[in-house]
Fold this sequence. Notes:
- The structure is a single chain.
- By secondary structure, this protein is mainly β.
- The chain has 1 helix and 10 strands; from the N terminus they run βββββββαβββ.
- Strands 4-5-1-8-9-10 form a 6-stranded mixed sheet, with helices on one face. A 4-stranded antiparallel sheet has the order 3-2-6-7, with no helix packed on it.
- The model has no long low-confidence stretch (mean pLDDT 86).
Amino acid sequence: GESAYDLISLHKQFATVTVVISDCPDYVSHELVLKGNVCGMDILDFSPIEGSFHCRAREMGKGVWSFRLPRQKDASLTLELIEDGEFLKEYRVGEAILSGGYSWNKEDLDDIHLELEYNKSSVSVTIKDWEAEKDRQYNY
Length: 140
């Protein structure tokens, strides 16, 4: 005749990252490869686990890619632009994300929007609050 309950709070442990490359030529094929030093999270305390991280972003449309990142512990993330199967350039997006005010320590991780300039090595970061739908934009 007894009953019990517990309130479970789920928290967002990843960041969805959208990448837009401006001035991206239509006549070549591009791939984005992300590399870093955090390969996942500890299932007991959700802390980042150090290890080699490597993934290819999924192309959502011409010049737009998306991927998900586990919680990070440093600014080591790089994004490689591959053109027609050959390495073209590298963007240091981990530094840009942190310089833009992003916090990997929040209980619920925000989403990230990156704008890369094809003809330059500049990165623009917009942080998208997960629940509030507010945007903050920073240039790096």
